[in-house]
Specification:
Elements lengths: L2 H11 L3 E7 L18 H8 L2 E7 L5 H10 L27 H6 L4 E7 L17 E5 L21 E5 L2 E6 L5 H15 L5 E6 L20 H23 L6 E7 L26 H4 E7 L8 E3 L3 E2 L3 H9 L14 H4 L11 E5 L3 E7 L2 E4 L2 E5 L15 E5 L3 E4 L15 H18 L13 H4 L2
Parallel strand pairs: 1-7, 1-8, 2-10, 2-11, 3-4, 3-7
Antiparallel strand pairs: 2-9, 4-5, 5-6, 8-9, 12-13, 13-14, 14-17, 15-16
């Protein structure tokens, strides 16, 4: 075999790099390619043109910590005992027995790094370096958990917000204007220093979670005000990462994924994103709370420029990456399944019969089944009819009781306005059966089921 043939074979055999970019509280409509009329996102729009766009991608739960647990472990968050958003000095966190994407890829020789917001437990034993990440730079929980919170003193009593480098606190933040830039610079440096070996990079931007911060280079640039400026800087960050891959000849053999952790925090009004055409937002199981923009680019394997509407959930990302890279799946049971056949065009059917939408500690609120989305009676929050917040000060939610089962055809009724449960009793019954099967595995505190296989106690640390 000639030298050139050897080189070509080495390129073909090299496992792909993996980059997961995960924003915070970003709405479905906050990118040009997903319909934003007033925010310029040229790099992400171009990524979609040269990659694959999913229009029915769901996060694992519509809240910070639970959502992050779902995408990193391939599990429904309640399976691993994580719900809601951890507060500072939490006594629990993601059990180190769990296999994260980082730990999975590290086991086959990948270098790994995480830059940005962690939010899976801030005690040392739960931090990123103990979950498979070789390098870490960022904040341990949400960027509003600091003394400058607008409700500090009346509702909260937060201490200083620490900025970590691995296990060392570098600083306590009083201004976050340069944090997106710092995370981007770290990401670029990591790619440059690891270009000769496979790597996994998890970029978890703290923005556009309130309080909104943007560097001087993007202030006043967007037609959607301060929020739009923040999204434009995130788009710039993605552009820097993609340019670094191209510069180093890594573009074709790198899987790049962009999505967010949950829908917009609607109480913050002009400092919140848009989930249109979907209803509600963060903290609810309605479409606006859990359906997120999703783009994946992998030139070596994925035909570019395709838009797919097959339902996929964040729990499917870990097993999909396992299939792409040849990494072994976790030893503990997971809920996700590989959607690689969908991404490469071999199938239009989800490997999951249904997706289940839990919230709070362990309440099953809804189920996505084919074109159908069904909700069980539950209480949820809304800003409908309420005064929205403004300029970083939140409005006040009101609580609504959904008193009967609601069924929507979310292909035709994206805003979930026409309840057809009474017209399709056979669909309602089928989803009830699927829900009851899942309840036997993960429970449902709304029903206080006994005899379930819920592993929450065994898997949370």
């Amino acid at each position: 075999m000639s030298c050139s043939e050897n080189k070509e074979k080495k390129i073909q055999d090299t496992p792909p790099n993996v980059i997961l970019i995960f924003t915070d509280d970003q709405g479905y409509q906050d990118l040009g390619t997903f319909g934003a009329p007033d925010i310029a996102t040229p790099h992400l729009d171009n990524m979609a043109l040269n990659g694959v766009k999913l229009t029915s991608f769901y996060v694992a739960q519509a809240v910070c910590s639970a959502s992050r647990a779902g995408i990193l472990t391939g599990c429904y968050p309640n399976r691993v005992g994580i719900h809601n958003a951890y507060m500072p000095n939490a006594k629990t966190g993601l059990n180190t027995k769990e296999t994260t994407i980082a730990k999975m890829l590290k086991s086959i020789g990948y270098r790994t790094a995480m830059y940005g917001k962690w939010h899976l437990g801030d005690d040392k034993k739960f931090m990123p370096n103990n979950h498979g990440f070789d390098d870490y730079f960022g904040i341990p929980y949400s960027n509003d958990m600091w003394p400058l919170h607008p409700q500090q003193g009346s509702v909260f009593n937060f201490g200083p917000l620490p900025l970590y480098e691995n296990e060392k606190i570098l600083d306590t933040l009083t201004d976050q204007s340069d944090l997106t830039t710092q995370i981007t610079e770290r990401s670029v440096a990591f790619i440059e220093s690891n270009k000769e070996q496979p790597f996994f990079l998890y970029v978890a931007h703290p923005q556009p979670h309130v309080p909104l911060f943007v560097s001087d280079k993007f202030k006043g640039k967007s037609e959607r005000g301060h929020y739009g400026d923040v999204i434009m800087e995130i788009d710039w960050s993605v552009g820097q990462i993609l340019a670094t891959l191209k510069k180093n000849g890594l573009e074709d053999n790198t899987v790049v994924i962009f999505t967010s952790d949950n829908g917009p925090w609607l109480a913050y009004g002009n400092h919140a994103g848009s989930a249109l055409p979907f209803s509600e937002g963060k903290g609810t199981a309605w479409e606006g709370g859990q359906r997120e923009p999703f783009i994946i680019k992998y030139p070596k394997k994925l035909t570019p420029g395709r838009t797919l509407d097959t339902p996929v959930m964040a729990i499917d990302i870990l097993p999909t990456i396992a299939e792409i890279t040849g990494a072994p799946l976790p030893k503990l049971p997971i809920d996700g399944k590989s959607v690689w056949p969908i991404l490469i065009g071999e199938s239009t059917e989800s490997p999951q019969e249904a997706y289940f939408f839990y919230y709070r500690v362990n309440e099953l609120h809804g189920v996505r089944y084919g074109k159908w989305k069904m909700y069980f009676p539950h209480t949820y929050r809304t800003m409908e009819g309420q005064t929205l917040g403004k300029d970083g000060i939140p409005g006040e939610y009101k609580m609504i009781n959904l008193e009967e089962i609601a069924l929507y055809n979310v292909l035709n009724d994206k805003s979930e306005t026409h309840n057809v449960a009474k017209e399709y009793p056979e669909v309602v019954e089928k989803i009830r059966i699927l829900a009851n099967n899942m309840r036997q595995k993960l429970g449902d505190s709304l029903l206080e089921l006994e005899g379930t296989e819920n592993r929450e106690v065994g898997r949370v640390d």
